Amino acid sequence: MTAHLPVLQIALPLVAAPLCVLLRNRMAVRGLTILVSWLCLGIALALLDQVQSTGVISYKLGGWAPPVGIEYRIDLLNAYVLVLVAAIGAVVMPFGLGTNEPGVREGQHHLYYAAFLLCLCGLLGITITGDAFNVFVFLEIASLSSYTLISLGQDRRALTAGFSYLILGSIGGTFILVGIGMVYMMTGTLNMMDIAERIPLVLGTRTIWMAFAFMVIGTFIKLAVFPLHQWLPNAYSYAPPVVSAFLAATATKVSYYVLARIIFTVFGAAFVFETMGLQRLLMPLSVLAMFLGSAAAIYQTDLKRLLAYSSIAQIGYMTLGLSFANLQGLTGGIVHLFNHALMKGGLFLVVAGIVYRLGSSNIKDMRGLGRKMPITMAAFVLGGLSLIGVPGTVGFISKWYLVLAALEAGSMLIAFMILASSLLAVLYVWRVVEVMYFAGDAEANPELRDPPWSMLIPTLVLIGATVWFGFQTDLTAGAASDAARMLLEVAK
Amino acid sequence: MIEALGLWNYWAVIVLMMIGLYIVIARDNLVKKMMGLTIFQVAAIMLYVSMGKISGGTAPILPEGPNHSVVYDPSVLYSNPLPHVLMLTAIVVGVATTALGLSIVVRIYEAYGTVEEDEIVAIEEQAGQ
Amino acid sequence: MSPSTAIGAAILLPLLGAIGIQLTGSKPNLREAVTIITSLLTFAVVLTLFPVVTAVGPGNRPELELLTVLPGVALAFQVEPLGMLYALVASGLWIPTGLYAIGYCRGHDEQNQTRFFTCFALAIFAALGIAFSRNLFTLFLFYEVLTLSTYPLVTHYGNDEAKAAGRTYLGILLTTSVLFLLMAVLWTWNLTGTLEFKLGGILAGKADGPVVAMLLALYAFGTGKAALMPFHRWLPAAMVAPTPVSALLHAVAIVKAGVFTVLKVIVYIFGISFLEDTGASTWLMYAAAFTLLCSSVIALSKDNLKARLAYSTISQLSYIVLGGALATAAGVLGGGLHIAMHAMGKITLFFCAGAIFVASHKKKISDMDGIGRAMPFTMGAFFLGSMSIIGLPPMGGSWSKWYLALGAADGDNAIFIAVLMISSLLSIAYLMPVVGRAFLFPAKPSDHGHDEAHGDHDHGHAPASGLLSKVFPEFHEAPLLCVAPLCATAIGCIFLFVFAEDIYDLLLPITQDLLPMTAER
Predict the structure, then answer these.
(1) Which of A70, A129, A166 has the highest number of chain B CBs within 10 A, making it the mutation to test binding with B?
(2) Where are the domains of chain A?
(3) Which of C482, C488, C330 is nearest to C496 (CA)?
(4) Pick from A199, A180, A194, A202: which is nearest to A67 by CA?
(5) CB contact under 8 A, A419 and C141
(6) What residues of chain A lie within 8 A of the CB of B96, using their CB?
(7) Do C179 and A423 make contact, defined as CB atoms within 8 angstroms?
(8) What are the pLDDT digits (tens) for B23-62?
(9) Confidence at residue B48, expressed as pLDDT on a 0 to 100 scale
(10) Using CA atoms, how far apart are residues C416 and C412, in angstroms rounded to an integer?
(11) ipTM of the predicted assembly exceeds 0.85
């Protein structure tokens, strides 16, 4: 059994999805989804344990040996991303057990959960596979199901948001496909480790340069790197809050993983940073994302949109860490991958709870909410403090590594810019905190109290994790630094 | 020059890709955007399929010999079947994307009464006021 | 208990107290009892560490390590003389502040008292965490906790004015701490690979030239709580808070956290002799002197008593920063002494300001003519506190001024002796008139009716006020719970004069890194 864990990781949700479609009963479908997501978490943890003790796992799909057969290859980096994605899934799926899923019409729950499971399957698959074309396939599975989920939002603008995301996302996916094709043309293989071995011979060819460009740009679209981020604010604002929580915490993280794989495993850091000079493009774009994203967040009137723009800024931090290409920077980028997933997942779940009680995510409607919904507001404040980067939260740990990376790279200016953009986060977080705690009492609405425990528990788990991992950083920063070290060594 | 003409398959890919992208960007009608996206995806498919063809290669089908066995003649040059296989998957992905996109367009039509993007933006602006 | 346990207990007690206060929020008397008991216990535990610190040398200081957060960065505590002094000041003065706050809140019928006392306890928790921190990470962590836990105190009244003040408060403190202080901490790590405090500093050999001065600038301006100009505006802005909060801010926890941080960084990150050799702190001397004089002058122009005291505080804080910047043994010792002296003196003055407000609703000095006759205890205490701030014997403040002047002379920076003299004159100019007008000028005619009405008003309230009015019917003092603490702290100023030598002996070891140097000379 344990030998087949890698394939079970994606097979379980993949099989459960059509099962959901067949089982129309709402409770059965819900129960199945939760069960599968928890099993996936268990499998991911087992795989992580295995990788940490025995090293890289290589699984031959269907028994066909690589490089001809598809290989699932799990090393330190994707073991952690697997655990992250599975954990977020396991926390988000039981959210609001016993309440109505917002935006889903009566009688369509089985389709909603099927889409959720497919999304989970796709994300796990992207992370676990060692075959380049397989990445594309799972990428499309994840993307298509996320377009579906986003379009289910209550607001009719969710439809246009989902449609724009579909167009942009498909263009991105196709770019990646073209890139893979060109690499295949030059190296004759699709297995990522095999490509890494064969590609040094052809690194000078224009085809490989174009392949690199296509793959990177395609990934940038999926990662919402400024200025290819246009789909994200609308998608996260109008989607059902639970979907936003799930996607904000996973989809962009997995895309970041894909970028790291492309750069460090497939093409190699020397080619990417010295020959192609990616950092000359990525560093300015990251800094722009950090500032413009945070600045845009300050002016938003809708809380979900605010968090969406904040995500763009936070993604800027991750890509900045990557563009430094030193150990601190890459560690910072990877640790921020975990940390931001926890923060944003938690914050979006807070918003989901608020929307459930209040019916709106407009900040003006949240006046004095702090008194009526103390636990929810406390969770928001903690999550916000983490976004700012107050010590004792995970946000601080990310900032620590990123600023040190900037200092190590010799750039005081970028170090200051990282800290200055955290101050912008103070502005948009505190704006919301002020409204909630001060501006007059919320309408004397007897309905207004904390969301039910089925919603509070997942929220508090994620927010609590942002504080816990602010102190116990072995699992996050320790792992990130191991993974970063491994990536940089392989590249040498 | 002759060499450039010999790469006509790549030219076709480029032309299709640019047409597709142009339609997606320049046309307001959502259905036309979907068409553009499909053309764009077709370009990628063409790239793979055309790379599979090897000069002087024949269709990659092993002939049947006596007793339902397969005859493998090492002197015969076969084209690469792998890109075709990959593209079967990609075609399916494309179909799914198109189906999903068009179903969203149908829902948009139900919600807004139009599938022209500029009109939708105008309706939303009016509703916002 | 063992020293490590004592450290843990000292820090944990206020936190537990905060939880206790939250839980007993619905029963006010029980809740106040929790505050009082917690403050007494905390002070007792901190006191047990005193003999331990004085007995051991730098290598054997009592320690408590909690956990390693990042490789090489731990959440760890260690008791050393400066921290011991700050902890004693913070936990010791919590007791009278707690009593005073109870009296004030009841006399004023404040809203949200549970939140008030909870945040008080949390602020002390953060202050003790700062005092006992073993490395820059722990200090920075508790520094930010202090900022955040005092925000609800500053914005207590919840009106627009409070909200605006809260924005200034948080804005300046967070901006300086994130942009400058955190930058300094990370840069220190980048240069030296450690954040641990070490006597003699950790920068020798790792940094030189302009880097040292720049790093010092980041630390000095990054510690917004030390109110160095131009990052001082949060202090006057925070005056919108209730007076017990101002007393807490300006004597006990926050500003002392700021100057403590500056001194600690100077002694344990840079090293006094290292600073002296590199001369990197010369600019800081001038910056501190500028703040000193400028805020004293501004204090002269303020008619609102609390605003005047706020600017006085900014000025007094710069004394301590100046002491550290002088980079001589006497200077640093003078600065450390002043932490205690100023705390005691300023808390008295703020207690008095609050008592005046509770008793007569007066905020402006121009309204306070003749109030000494109605409130002799309060104004008497104010007089004693002012003398300490001005630096006249027999008040404790005279000792710290003496050592600061000595420190300036030691380092051939005699110009700063002149600065100290001028500022003493200025403080006479802005403090003495208050006392003078209170006792010597006749009361304004419109006051009488107001006082009597208010006397009756107090009668109906807490029994404590009734006690004072029964014993001294001709006075219109504030409730006993307000007056007793301020008398105690006023007498404390005299005590500190007598016990200054003990504090001096406590602090002397921090200048140990200079002794080998002087031996060489």
Answers:
(1) A166
(2) 1-167+228-259, 277-492
(3) C488
(4) A194
(5) no
(6) 140, 144
(7) yes
(8) 999 999 999 999 999 999 999 999 999 988 888 888 888 8
(9) 92
(10) 9
(11) yes
